[in-house]
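#lab-general

N.A. 3:47 PM
ok so I finally got the sequence cleaned up, no stray characters, all 175 residues accounted for. can someone with queue access submit it? mine expired

B.Y. 3:52 PM
send it over

N.A. 3:53 PM
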Amino acid sequence: MTQLLCTGALVILFGAATAVAQSVQNPYSAMVTGGWNTLKKNLSASAAKMAEADYAFKPTPQVRSFGQIIGHLANEHYSICAGAKGEKSPSTADFEKVTSKAELVAALDKSIAYCDGVYTSVTDASGTQPVEVFGEKMMRLGALQVNLTHSSEHYGNLVTYMRLKGVVPPSSTGQ
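B.Y. 4:20 PM
back already:
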């Protein structure tokens, strides 16, 4: 039993040491990926927390509804992460036109999973490679930072919509 516990502890320590070594070897990509890992949880949890009826909610007629923001995020995740990956977007749907909560939650989660593959594979070295996003040339890490910034801006919108509807956002509940 003691040997099993020691072996388990060594596996955990080795995993932690590997993660620390990775972030030391690739501090910039680790920082951007870390930001994405936190944000994606908040985005997904927000989509899940909001009631289906509130997906049509707009604080004013001039802005997107909650559901349209979720759809917009899914669209942009595919577009930006495809550019960062150096390929054409695998999605041809316009999720901003979808109205079903279930479909939008699924689309958002699939777009997040697609982006995860790009974030987890980037290193500081590969992050300096040129890519094109929306017709603009930039470094791969720059494209991933654009995705992170864009998604963060829209998470701010989602937080406001949720608070207006009496829903506590995930970043305030630690979910």
